[in-house]
């Protein structure tokens, strides 16, 4: 009897092992470290593909989480899922964003050390959505602060506001972040969120005045026109039709079926109230948004001396009221430039091309400063109200870095160049913290292993940032030198300096 039971047991074990192997063949491995052919790129991609087919979008590489955007809701972020990953060891449950969130939070609590979650990837990879899910996890699972959940609500509601003013539809992504964001969430000694702070980087302000074909301006313009109340639009001098505004028609896709601007406007208006915007502040904010649209519709004509003159008096009238400036001062700023020589101010008239450039420069500056003010206002709302109390000293910080995605367009703006450079630096940091440092540690300890070959992108970063020889240094030098500097002279200087670089092509 014992023998038979044992035989049955071994058959059962064999069947279990075989079914486990069959399942692994179908869904791949949960951690790329367990791949038999771990140095093969093809095996890596095939494992991702297998998991993706089974709606398994997360896979580990040790402590690193790889995510593939499914472009649909898989129902894997519910409260039930949060509880499943809360307080559980990293490898006890299948790979998930919540596992990373919980691991960082528990390390913050037990070790009393600040933590950071870095999210990077190309445009459309799902970085912004991942940031929102992380904040949602902390808002739902962390203890409530003694003074209620106002901070948690503000942390969550800061997202739709920043997305409205800082995100846009690009060719690859309907909600692409066009700025970098680092958010600190502050926790008290009990582990409750008590404050926050946001740092924003490099808003792509050129998008205000120009968009590539198939792209849109920032969401807020379309949301205001589509969802704003009739009285609000009348006060701002706006029409509902985006086609009426020069700054909204460059990309030729003002309406997008996958974006509901009217509903998004309602979300943004509610969020502004939650993060302590008064009605007067909202009115001022919308006045500036409207002023940018009116600026785009300012037109010029040349007089007898070929100097630019404003021909759209109606737009000028709206602008003076919305921006709170004198009409004569604004007119002068759009058609003249001020030169200060030997302590004297001289006004020099602009031609048509220069006036159009000045108008666009003003629109970009107004929008950029508005965005900076908006972030500062949100930070005042998120600031802990107990910063003076003794317990404040025992707070810890969890940082979330949601960096803009890299893209390669047919025509890349300077901002896109900076965005791609920033991603190269992040990749360099990732290489330093994982592949390079790990293998150096193995070597130092005399551990036998098969070295992992990888492309070290330091050579790319050096091409951009190297002193005296990098692209940015050459650009600085070209901007400062005497004489007329143009795109062509800059290109010629690049040819002279870095034409032999293996990753430079003109």
TrEMBL record:
<dbReference type="GO" id="GO:0007015">
    <property type="term" value="P:actin filament organization"/>
</dbReference>
<dbReference type="GO" id="GO:0005886">
    <property type="term" value="C:plasma membrane"/>
</dbReference>
<dbReference type="GO" id="GO:0005902">
    <property type="term" value="C:microvillus"/>
</dbReference>
<dbReference type="InterPro" id="IPR027417">
    <property type="entry name" value="P-loop_NTPase"/>
</dbReference>
<keyword id="KW-0067">ATP-binding</keyword>
<keyword id="KW-0518">Myosin</keyword>
<keyword id="KW-0009">Actin-binding</keyword>
<keyword id="KW-0963">Cytoplasm</keyword>
<dbReference type="GO" id="GO:0030048">
    <property type="term" value="P:actin filament-based movement"/>
</dbReference>
<keyword id="KW-0966">Cell projection</keyword>
<keyword id="KW-0677">Repeat</keyword>
<dbReference type="GO" id="GO:0051015">
    <property type="term" value="F:actin filament binding"/>
</dbReference>
<protein>
    <submittedName>
        <fullName>Unconventional myosin-Ic isoform X2</fullName>
    </submittedName>
</protein>
<keyword id="KW-0547">Nucleotide-binding</keyword>
<feature type="domain" description="Myosin motor">
    <location>
        <begin position="28"/>
        <end position="506"/>
    </location>
</feature>
<dbReference type="Pfam" id="PF00063">
    <property type="entry name" value="Myosin_head"/>
</dbReference>
<dbReference type="GO" id="GO:0016459">
    <property type="term" value="C:myosin complex"/>
</dbReference>
<keyword id="KW-0505">Motor protein</keyword>
<dbReference type="InterPro" id="IPR036961">
    <property type="entry name" value="Kinesin_motor_dom_sf"/>
</dbReference>
<feature type="binding site">
    <location>
        <begin position="121"/>
        <end position="128"/>
    </location>
    <ligand>
        <name>ATP</name>
    </ligand>
</feature>
<comment type="similarity">
    <text>Belongs to the TRAFAC class myosin-kinesin ATPase superfamily. Myosin family.</text>
</comment>
<dbReference type="InterPro" id="IPR001609">
    <property type="entry name" value="Myosin_head_motor_dom-like"/>
</dbReference>
<dbReference type="GO" id="GO:0005737">
    <property type="term" value="C:cytoplasm"/>
</dbReference>
<dbReference type="GO" id="GO:0000146">
    <property type="term" value="F:microfilament motor activity"/>
</dbReference>
<dbReference type="GO" id="GO:0006897">
    <property type="term" value="P:endocytosis"/>
</dbReference>
<dbReference type="GO" id="GO:0005524">
    <property type="term" value="F:ATP binding"/>
</dbReference>
């Amino acid at each position: 009897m014992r023998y038979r039971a044992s035989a049955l047991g071994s058959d059962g074990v064999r069947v279990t092992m075989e079914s486990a192997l069959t399942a692994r063949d179908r869904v791949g491995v949960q951690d790329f470290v367990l791949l038999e052919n771990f140095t093969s790129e093809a095996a890596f991609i095939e494992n991702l593909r297998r998991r993706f087919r089974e709606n398994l979008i997360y896979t580990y590489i040790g402590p690193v989480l790889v995510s593939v955007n499914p472009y649909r809701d898989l129902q894997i972020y519910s409260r039930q899922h949060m509880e499943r990953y809360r307080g559980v060891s990293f490898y006890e449950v299948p790979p998930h964003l919540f596992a990373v969130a919980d691991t960082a939070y528990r390390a913050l609590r037990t070790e009393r050390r600040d933590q950071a979650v870095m999210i990077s990837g190309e445009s459309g990879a799902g970085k912004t959505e991942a940031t929102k899910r992380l904040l949602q996890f902390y808002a739902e699972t962390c203890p409530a602060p003694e003074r209620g959940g106002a901070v948690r609500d503000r942390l969550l509601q800061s997202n739709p506001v920043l997305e409205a003013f800082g995100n846009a539809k690009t060719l690859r992504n309907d909600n692409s972040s066009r700025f970098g964001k680092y958010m600190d969430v502050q926790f008290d000694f009990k582990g409750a969120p008590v404050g926050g702070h946001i740092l924003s980087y490099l808003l792509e302000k050129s998008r205000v005045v120009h968009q590539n074909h198939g792209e849109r301006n920032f969401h807020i313009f379309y949301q205001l026109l589509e969802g704003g109340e009739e009285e609000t639009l009348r006060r701002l001098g706006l029409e509902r039709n985006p086609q009426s505004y020069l700054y909204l028609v460059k990309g030729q896709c003002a309406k997008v079926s996958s974006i509901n601007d009217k509903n998004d406007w309602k979300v943004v208006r509610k969020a502004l109230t939650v993060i302590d915007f008064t009605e007067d502040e909202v009115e001022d904010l919308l006045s500036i948004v409207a002023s940018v649209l009116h600026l785009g519709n300012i037109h010029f004509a040349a007089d007898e001396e070929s100097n630019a003159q404003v021909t759209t008096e109606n737009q000028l009238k709206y602008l003076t009221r919305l921006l709170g400036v004198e009409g004569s001062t604004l007119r002068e700023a759009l058609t003249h430039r001020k030169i200060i020589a030997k302590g004297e101010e001289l006004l020099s008239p602009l031609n048509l091309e220069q006036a159009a450039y000045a108008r666009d420069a003003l629109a970009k500056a107004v929008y950029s400063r508005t965005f900076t003010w908006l972030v500062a206002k949100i930070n005042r709302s998120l600031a802990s109200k107990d910063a003076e109390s003794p317990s404040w000293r025992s707070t810890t910080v969890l940082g979330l870095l949601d960096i803009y995605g890299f893209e390669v367009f047919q025509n890349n703006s300077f901002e896109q160049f900076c965005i791609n450079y920033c991603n190269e630096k992040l990749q360099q940091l990732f290489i330093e913290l994982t592949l390079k440092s790990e293998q150096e540690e193995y070597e130092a300890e005399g551990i036998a292993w098969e070295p992992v070959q990888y492309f070290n992108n330091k050579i790319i970063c050096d091409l951009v940032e190297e002193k005296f020889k990098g692209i940015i240094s050459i650009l600085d030098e070209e901007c400062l030198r005497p004489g007329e500097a143009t795109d062509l002279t800059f290109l010629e200087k690049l040819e002279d300096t870095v034409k032999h670089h293996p990753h430079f092509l003109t």
